[in-house]
Amino acid sequence: MTFSDDSLSFSTHHTEEREDVLNRVLAQELGADTPLSNSDWAGSLYAELVSESALETYLQKSEVYEGRRWINIPEDPSHRSELNEPLCRVINSVVQHFGPRKKKASREAVSVSANSFKFEPIGSTKHSSSPDIVVKASGPSFSPPKGARLGFSNVAACIDTRLEEDANNVLNHLSEMAIYAKHMFIHQPNRLFVRSLLVTEKRARLFHFDRSGAQYSHLFDIHDKPHAFIRLILGLCTINERLLGLDDTIQWIKGPGGRRSRGTLRTIGPDNAIVTYDLDMDQIPFIRTNLCGRGTTCWIVKNANGQRLVVKDYWVVDNRPSEVGLLGEVKGLRGVCQMVSFEDNRARTKDFRGDTTAFKSDAFQNRTSVRIVMKAYSSSIENFRSVEQVLAALRDAIAAHKTLLSRNIIHRDISPNNILLSTYGADKGDRGVLIDLDIALKSKGPVSETPVDCRMGTRMFQSIMVLKSCQLTPDYLPEHDYLDDLESFFWLFTYILLTYTPNGHRMPSDDYRERLMSSWSHHDPTSALLSKWAFLNSPSAIRESQEAMHPSWRSACSTLFLEFREFAHEVSYEKERLIYEGQEVLGTAAPDRFSSLRSNVDEHYRRVIRMFDAALQNVPEVRVDESVPGPPPLNSSTSQFSSSDIVALDQ
After folding, report:
1. Residues 162-215: pLDDT tens digits?
2. What is the distance between the alpha carbons of residues 613 and 153, in angstroms, rounded to a whole number?
3. The Protein kinase domain covers which part of the protein (predicted)?
4. Which of 342, 497, 574, 649 has the most CB atoms lying inside 10 A of its own CB?
């Protein structure tokens, strides 16, 4: 395996540096605890693919297994690369013997070192990695990468080889396999789970990845247990896409060169009958790149009348309030996404895992696949083309947020990916649309019953109190309220002013801007907190930020920026002042310390919306000087700084 992080490349002799990078990958993607499966798990998989008698017949006649060992695999290799070609011969022998004779798909194990393997870092993914062996695949869900014959978009499974002396270095192996799995989820957006193998000259270990995380098997002897080894080979090479870990309700038809020419998505329609939509091949799917978590993927489809719809697939944790239920409650509300139909309980991660009862309580959390079909709007607010368009979209999104609150719902994830532009010429109230209620909270009036949590939402746009949650003991944790979201709107507005020109082009690179955006999206919430607190309280922050803006923003939005900043400052300062009040005895629950602040809920919304209305009235009088050059607008719905980590892919 070759491994790189940014511009650094690591070979096996850079052991400490390489292991440090791998451990960081593991912590970021999977957390602290990945369970070891029970001893029977790997051997119990794929029993339906081949009978015991058929396995015995193959082993007796095989030219690659003799005398109770795989004779192609060297007994005492000096380097792991000596295992690659012999192992490919074993795998291909098994696939050719047991595979169907007539087939529209193919599987072939190939050594990556002998083939050109295309790797492309995606979004904020800077780690690059190529496995030793891949199962090259063709079929409905696979397509070769542009400009290459082999890449993560057309492999069914990844296999790494190691010497037996390195077989027990499980954390490093897990990290490497996690990188492969991450990119398979990205390049195969209809993936439900990924499985990979580690093979030495004597033993093998299976790794499994899904949206709940990962697990791995015990090492087992491939020579003494050839039946289990063959079944795993057949499972990782099966042409049954559902069994392989792919969602077969999404299918593609190939054109010249194996490229996808059209596709379909099958789901439940508004009349509860099965319906098949055409994928809009001109619109690439949007994919959340985190390996573990919601795994949100959005598809643009067309119904029989040519109407565009958005299909959102994601994985929800058990006992989490249903987004489907919340979307049902907001039916007909202006400025809020509207649901057409839904399909829940599509798949469960616990059904991919075998027996999970022996896992530690915090080592596995089941997630269930949910599909929601929604009305299509335009693109992300980051694709605005004028001052008026972006201000109107933000204004109407804030108004929609107030309407949500009237239905006792708090959004909790205000970010550019969750505010869409409406179609050109939309009426007031519909010019910006709030989407994505999958971490929204039910509330009692202006406050939820759920404490602020820096792990929820998009880091760059989190409020100061949400970021401060990492420092507070449970006794002092306040509940997430509407003011946290209103403050998030301020950070989003400021981000747009600093990152874009008034006509939606990217601003040229600037040290101040890069530094500020990086600190706001820092993985450490305390670092982001300190940066935002300084931005709201330092007198120099006003001058520095306005100097970093395009000059025409200053003429069009200076008053709005200063007033909105003052509002965010007042709220954050008052919460900071009140956070420790009212607790007479240390260790006892504190009363609702922010009730006096929240009693002005209507006035808070009126005040912020009036700011935007005044700025919008001023827009026709402001001549926007667009002569300052900027790079062309991005094709993606996200920006380089967006910490929501969503990417768009070629079909």
Report:
1. 999 999 999 889 989 999 999 999 999 999 999 999 999 999 999 999 999 999
2. 47
3. 286-568
4. 497
**How many independent structural domains does the chain possess?**
2
Residues forming beta bridges with residue 451, ordered by sequence position: 479
Over the stretch 216-261, which tens digit does the pLDDT of each residue have?
Answer: 999 999 999 999 999 999 999 999 999 999 999 999 998 887 788 8
Q: Provide the token pair at 607.
A: 């005040």
**Integer Cα distance of 583 and 198 in angstroms:** 55
Domain contains 408 = no
Q: Scanning the structure block, which residue is given the tokens 């709005």?
A: 560
| Final residue of a structural domain among 191, 221, 244 | 244
Residue 526's CB is within 10 A of a number of other CB atoms, namely: 13
Q: Could you give the CA distance from residue 292 to residue 339 in angstroms, rounded to a whole number?
A: 26
Residues 6+ apart with CB under 8 A from 528: 459, 460, 462, 467, 519, 520, 521, 522
Give per-residue pLDDT as tens, 281-322.
988 898 888 888 899 999 999 999 999 999 999 999 998 877
Which residues sit opposite 208 in a β-bridge?
A: 195, 215
How far is it, in rounded angstroms, from Cα 495 to Cα 490? Answer: 8
Q: Which of 206, 219, 233 is nearest to 65 (CA)?
A: 233
Sequence-separated (6 or more) residues with CB below 8 Å from residue 335: 396, 397, 399, 400, 403, 429, 430, 432, 433, 434
In a domain, 265, yes or no: no
CA separation for the pair 135, 106 (Å, rounded):
10
For 91, phi then psi, to 5°, come to: -60, -45
- DSSP secondary structure string, 247-306? -TTEEEEE-GGG-EEEEEEEEE-TTSSEEEEEE-TTSPPEEE--SSS---EEEEEE-TT-
Q: What is the pTM of this model?
A: 0.85
Of 226, 244, 262, which residue is a domain's last?
244
Ordered alpha helix ranges (H), 290-433: 323-329, 387-406
What value does the CA radius of gyration of the chain take, rounded to a whole number of Å? 27
Q: Look up tokens 């047991």; give the residue.
A: 98
Phi, psi of 154 (to 5 degrees): -135, 45
